[in-house]
Amino acid sequence: MPFGLKNAGATYQRAMVTLFHDMMHKEIEVYVDDMIAKSKEGEDHLVNLKRLFNRLKKYKLRLNPAKCTLGAKSGKLLGFVVSERGIEVDPDKVKAIRELPPPSTVRETLGQWKTKDAKLVPYHEYLEELAENFERISFTYTPRIKNQFRRCTCDARIHDTATCAKSTPTRSKHPPMSYIQWRPRGPFQCGGIDVIGPINPKASNGHLFILVAIDYFTKWIEAITLASVTTKAVARFLKCNIIARYGVPATIITDNVKNLNNKIINEL
């Protein structure tokens, strides 16, 4: 396969799933060119390794000995530390944040936590406007996994007293967003669906639209072409291309168009 192609990663992942589909999520885990043989007991580990090596030999695949680690009880994978305790954050990834000095003034606090996300800028601007009505403001850090606001990093608690409040705050013109916690915890647990089109020129079969689903954990993509994106076509795609192959995902994220977000899809 030529180097530099954008679909090289997806093509390689599809090949790995084809070759190791009966072993994945049981004896091994495969993410593109990262492969892990796992077992709960030591004696089972040798059996799993032997089966993996036989499969690699059968399809003439080679491993780089310099990058192989045998008998490890913990290791780093995809930016996380995996061990018998579970999946944990890599300390090296959060070292800069943990060593970040705390702000000493309110001005430093507001500047440090100011969002760079264009969608959240109006909310932050309103927070700054609201903060002018108070003399004392405290900020409490909330871990991302416990934060109901997916893209926010802190929970601002504003303390109002009769002596320090300059005026009564008016109702927010920017209502808070109620994000859903969608962080994927494994392959095909959380994904998104969207429609591309109408495409020009048409496909060879006359179809104008492409229905695409992506798994947020593996970045695996499933797609079909459609003449028109109907609710029944979307439901059939979910049944045949997603659920039948990978099981029922815990979360599917779409926009609010009726052919993707409707009663039939919710019941499915």
Automatic annotation (TrEMBL):
Residues 1-82 form the Reverse transcriptase domain. Pfam families: RVT_1. Residues 183-268 form the Integrase catalytic domain. InterPro entries: DNA/RNA_pol_sf (IPR043502), Integrase_cat-core (IPR001584), Retrovirus_Pol_polyprotein (IPR050951), Rev_trsase/Diguanyl_cyclase (IPR043128), RNaseH-like_sf (IPR012337), RNaseH_sf (IPR036397), RT_dom (IPR000477). GO terms for biological process: DNA integration. This is Integrase catalytic domain-containing protein. Coiled coil: none annotated. One of its GO terms (molecular function) is nucleic acid binding.
